[in-house]
Design goal:
The structure holds 2 protein chains of 2 kinds. By secondary structure, chain A is of the alpha+beta class. Chain A has one domain. Chain A is 37% helix and 39% strand. Chain B has one domain. Helix content of chain B is 40%, strand content 37%. Chain B is built from 5 helices and 10 strands. In chain B, strands 2-1-10-9-8-7-6-5 form an 8-stranded antiparallel sheet. Chain B has a two-stranded antiparallel sheet with strand order 3-4. The longest helix of chain B is centred in the N-terminal third of the chain and has 25 residues. The chains are: A alpha+beta, B alpha+beta. At the A-B interface, helix 4 and strand 4 of A face strand 2 and helix 2 of B. Strand 4 of chain A pairs antiparallel with strand 2 of chain B.
Chain lengths: 172, 188
């Protein structure tokens, strides 16, 4: 009996460690401004995040948007057309210190928004968008599916800079 | 033998890549530019593959369908308070389209001047404000108007009009200069 317990105690962390090592990670890097600003780096295994959502309140598990149901087939077509399109600048808006760029780069859409000292860069893989669109069940989205879709991204996903404060999210 | 196989593979790769490049080059894009004069003026550029524009046209058509349902299948064009029914436009177009080159409408009201005419296969809509505040022109191929009005009753066939615009025209479709703002729409 004690031998089995010891084996169990050894195997369980090994399985847990294996899960962690094989999982997709979102690395969240938060940097506060100023000389004494803190820097926090949080690696979030996406599989564990999905698992943790099982214990979250119902409203966190599901995003209800029934009003978009009729547009979902169009969204799927838009993604398909964008995938087939060559790379290039799709939209750019410049007005004083405000700048917006939407660009197709490879299989991703890159969005850049700049407003004075605030800068937001987001890179969305089209496959992830397609996954999200397809996970729609006619009423809304399961947030676990959204996290799974985020796992499709690789590299820098988001970068938000406001003054000297910064948040970076990347997935690997 | 091995060299020939390599040569054949290289040739095939060149042909395939050439075909892909050609296919990409042939895909027309819709371009929109809005430019405001001055250092602080806004500049907007939109470049979309027309195949994507067609999807948006389908969405617009769906929205129009909803509008029709909500308004008892009655849609009209609001011209500064004067409603013109689409069915009336269709009837007028049926009469005018075979008239050949002509000036259909010429309105001078105060400082504003509007002229709608046909030149060859193109309908030209030109407007001008005499105080120099703005002027513009819209050029629409006759076949696009045909396609737009090819629906029934009060319905506009937007999808068909866009398809026709893509297949029949390349170049500038809309040019508007209104005071400090310039708008250009073209397909290339």
């Amino acid at each position: 009996m004690p031998t089995k317990l010891i084996i169990g105690l050894l195997v369980a962390p090994a399985i847990f460690l294996g899960l962690l090592l094989s999982a997709d990670y979102a690395i969240i890097d938060v940097r506060e401004g100023g000389p004494d600003g803190m820097r926090i780096i949080v690696p979030v295994p996406l599989s564990l995040a999905r698992l943790a959502l099982n214990f979250a309140p119902a409203e966190a598990k599901y995003v209800q948007v029934p009003e978009i149901a009729e547009y979902l087939p169009y969204a799927e077509r838009i993604v398909a057309e964008l995938r087939d399109a060559p790379d290039g600048l799709l939209v750019s808006v410049d007005e004083r210190s405000q700048h917006v760029r939407v660009e197709k780069i490879g299989d991703a859409l890159a969005v850049h928004v700049e407003d004075g000292s605030d800068v937001v860069d987001v890179e969305v893989p089209l496959d992830a968008v397609l996954d999200i669109v397809r996970s729609y069940d006619g009423e809304g989205f399961d947030t676990r599916d959204l996290i799974r879709a985020v796992g499709r991204a690789r590299g820098n996903v988001a970068h938000v800079k406001s003054g000297d404060e910064e948040v970076k999210i990347w997935v690997w | 033998m091995k060299n020939r196989a390599l040569l054949a593979l290289a040739l095939a790769a060149v042909l395939i890549s050439g075909g892909v490049v050609q296919a990409q080059e042939q895909t027309p894009w819709l371009h929109i530019r809005v430019t405001e004069q001055g250092e602080d003026g806004a500049r907007v550029a939109v470049n979309l593959p027309v195949s994507l524009v067609q999807v948006f046209a389908d969405v617009a058509e769906k929205e129009l369908e909803k509008e029709l349902t909500g308004r008892g299948s009655h849609v009209d064009i609001d011209m500064e308070g004067h409603d013109i029914e689409i069915a009336d436009v269709r009837r007028a177009w049926a009469e005018l389209r075979n008239a050949g080159d002509a000036e259909f409408v010429e309105i001078q009201e105060g400082d504003e001047y509007v002229k709608i005419s046909r030149s060859g296969d193109t309908i030209l809509i030109a407007f001008e404000e005499n105080d120099g505040a703005g002027n513009g022109r819209v050029e629409v191929p006759v076949s696009v108007v045909d396609a737009l009005l090819s629906g029934e009753g009060q319905r506009l066939n937007i999808r068909s009009a866009i398809d026709e615009m893509i297949s029949s025209s390349a170049g500038e479709i809309v040019f508007v200069e209104d005071g400090d703002t310039t708008v250009r729409i073209w397909i290339e």
